[in-house]
């Protein structure tokens, strides 16, 4: 399938989300935070994450509330968006890591925007020679418990393929 663009119909669960009139609908995220088994290659992670954006149309959705209160959604084309932030903890005293990590997690979550995007953001905390930590947040309109499993598997597959010099091929 090629890149899907243009207006799409809201699903029933999306309609329900907007009917609830959340005070801050941009900040309704699901997140994962985990240690990596090894130090990640940043270029490979960026390429793998960018491929997920191309492969999974829901990650490119944008929303608009019309003057009559009705919400509409459309799928953006391919655009360059900063999805990955790298924070080096190498020169931060280990006693301060928690504070730095929490601050950057908050920044990432607050940066999601239904109108302009992105709906997905990653922060890689580089611990120097050690394995790092990866924080990944996605707006709930673009992810649920089932799709997380698919996205995690696709990220791991794409990252491995890039590191091994292969063309990214996802199911």
From TrEMBL:
Residues of the Condensation domain: 6-171
Specify the species.
Bacillus cereus
A Gene Ontology molecular-function term?
catalytic activity
Tell me the Gene Ontology biological-process terms attached to this UniProt entry.
Answer: lipid biosynthetic process
| Stored SUPFAM superfamilies | CoA-dependent acyltransferases (SSF52777)
State the name under which the record lists this protein: Condensation domain-containing protein
């Amino acid at each position: 399938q090629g890149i899907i663009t243009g207006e799409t119909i809201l699903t029933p669960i999306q309609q329900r989300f907007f009917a609830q009139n959340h005070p801050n609908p941009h900040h309704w995220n699901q997140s994962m935070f985990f240690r990596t088994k090894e130090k990640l290659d940043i270029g490979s992670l960026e390429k793998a994450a960018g491929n997920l954006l191309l492969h999974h149309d829901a990650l490119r959705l944008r929303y608009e509330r019309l003057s009559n209160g009705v919400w509409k959604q459309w799928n953006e084309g391919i655009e360059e968006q900063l999805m990955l932030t790298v924070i080096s903890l190498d020169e931060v005293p280990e006693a301060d890591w928690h504070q730095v990590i929490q601050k950057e997690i908050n920044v990432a979550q607050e940066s999601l925007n239904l109108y302009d995007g992105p709906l997905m953001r990653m922060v890689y905390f580089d611990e120097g020679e050690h394995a790092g930590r990866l924080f990944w947040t996605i707006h709930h309109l673009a992810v649920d418990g089932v799709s997380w499993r698919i996205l995690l598997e696709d990220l791991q597959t794409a990252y491995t393929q890039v590191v091994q010099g292969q063309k990214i091929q996802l199911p």
